[in-house]
Amino acid sequence: MLIAYFKSESTLARYRSGLAGPYLDEFTSWLANHGYRRISIRRHVREVVHFADWATSEGLAPGELDYRTLSKWTKVF
């Protein structure tokens, strides 16, 4: 489903190679099935990818992305 919203092979490869990669097709489908428009879907996918990149840069593993950890990090900002 991701390919319906992003055409660039390099963008698709980068998005799929990150922490969120395995979940993006399902997430994109969910957004589309809930009536989100193309521009909103693209924006939300980019936001998820940016968040996942940030989490990776901070050394956070997927299992650590819970409310407690995120609350701790948001207090830093």
Describe this protein's structure.
With 77 residues, the chain is an all-alpha fold. The chain has one domain. It contains 4 helices and no strands. The chain has helices spanning 9-17, 24-33, 38-57, 67-76. The longest helix is centred in the middle third of the chain and has 20 residues, at 38-57. It is globular.
Which helices and strands, and how do they pair?
Elements: H1 9-17, H2 24-33, H3 38-57, H4 67-76
Which descriptors apply to this entry?
single chain; 77 residues; mainly alpha; 64% helix
Radius of gyration: 13 Å
Q: How many β-strands, per DSSP?
A: 0
How far the N terminus sits from the C terminus, by CA atoms, comes to 34 Å
Average pLDDT, all residues: 89
Element order: H for helix, E for strand:
HHHH
Could you name the ranges where pLDDT drops below 50 across 5 or more consecutive residues?
none
Number of helices: 4
Fraction of residues in H or I helices:
55-70%
Which structural category fits the helices and strands? mainly alpha
Q: Overall 3D geometry? A: globular
Q: Major sheet: size, sense and barrel closure? A: none
Q: Estimate nothing, just give the exact number of structural domains.
A: 1
State which percent range the strand residues make up. under 5%
Q: In a nutshell, what does this entry contain?
A:
The protein is mainly α. Helix content is 64%, strand content 0%.
